[in-house]
Amino acid sequence: MEYTYKIHQDTPDRQNEELARYEHEVFGTTNYSEQYTDTLPKTISRYMEDAKIGTNKLSRLTGIPKATITRYCNGTARYKEDYLCAICIALRLKPVKQRYLLGRLRHRLRDGIVEHTTRSYIIREYLDGCYYDDSLTVISCNDRLRANGEPTLTKLTSEKEDEQ
User: Fold this and answer.
1) pTM score
2) pLDDT band, very low/low/confident/very high, at 112 (cuts 50, 70, 90)
């Protein structure tokens, strides 16, 4: 006796409006082959363009040197997780975009489960809230980290901003 098992595998419904919106927002396209070839430099550049923020302004908002941001966008720099977190905060990315951006570097988001440190909790709070609250900036994050005796994401603090 011969048996044939047919396993039905659901494939994503490409017409699903919600999925298409999600893909377009996160990946910039609904085309799978383009999503597959997406890279960290392309993602950073796309998110900067979406936020209408250039390298000069992003440098001022994050404290990351302009040349480093340019190298990040060109794919010629070594990426630092702290700098990427600062970029996420400065661009006010939605958590889903942050997860994707940091995932391109093969990092998990700081969620308190992986790391139980004061620094991790502070950064996680700023990443979670920056899209919703304009007062959560890289400067305030760095000030709070410094006040707790933790290393800052970048060199930009309220004291350095006052000097400029």
Assistant:
1) 0.81
2) very low
Contact between residue 77 and residue 68 where contact means Cβ atoms under 8 Å apart: yes
Q: In the chain, what are the domain boundaries? A: 19-163
Q: Tell me how far apart the alpha carbons of residues 161 and 129 are, in angstroms, rounded to a whole number.
A: 22
Residues 6 or more apart whose Cβ sits within 8 Å of residue 133: none
Spatial contact of 139 and 156, defined as CB atoms under 8 Å apart: yes
Dist CA 97 CA 50 (whole Å): 12
Burial class (CB in 10 A: 0-12, 13-18, 19+), 159: exposed
Cβ pair 72, 44 in contact under 8 A:
yes
Cα–Cα distance between 109 and 35 in angstroms, integer?
21
Orientation angle between helical segments 66-74 and 55-62, nearest 10 degrees: 120
- Exposed e or buried b for every residue in 48-87, given b needs 16+ CB within 10 A? beeeebebeebbbbbbbeeebbeebbeeebebeebbbbbb
